[in-house]
């Protein structure tokens, strides 16, 4: 592998990992609109967003009190929505489950 190939691959992976607030809102709105048909997905997305918010808010006490053990948990929480969407997209591509909100 060439150095430029590795950089390009990492750049593409990073772009897929980053989600905007508009994307989070779009997915949340789809879940709200379809919560009767997909109650498990609705509650699972709420859990993902709750843990995401806890990850962001958790940085304040982690830094203020110097609790280094909490930093990996906060970091994981901040990445959770992107990881969840990537996992669902991969399962959708492999025809393991259907994910209507990917392109909604």
What can be said about this structure in brief?
The protein has four helices and no strands. With 104 residues, it is an all-alpha fold.
Describe the structure.
By secondary structure, the protein is mainly α. 75% of the residues lie in helices and 0% in strands. The chain is built from four helices and no strands. It has helices at residues 3-17, 21-33, 39-65, 71-93. Helix 3 runs antiparallel to helix 4. The longest helix is centred in the middle third of the chain and has 27 residues, at 39-65. The chain is globular and about 45 Å long.
Low-confidence stretches: 8-14
Helix content: over 70%
**Count of DSSP helices?**
4
Shape: globular
Spatial gap, N to C terminus = 36 Å
The biggest sheet amounts to: none
- What class would the helix/strand composition place it in? mainly alpha
SSE topology string: HHHH
Average the pLDDT over all residues and give the rounded result.
85
Strand content: under 5%
Give the beta-strand count. 0
Computed Rg? 16 Å
Which descriptors would you attach to this protein?
104 residues, 4 helices
Chain-wise SSE layout:
Blueprint: H1 3-17, H2 21-33, H3 39-65, H4 71-93
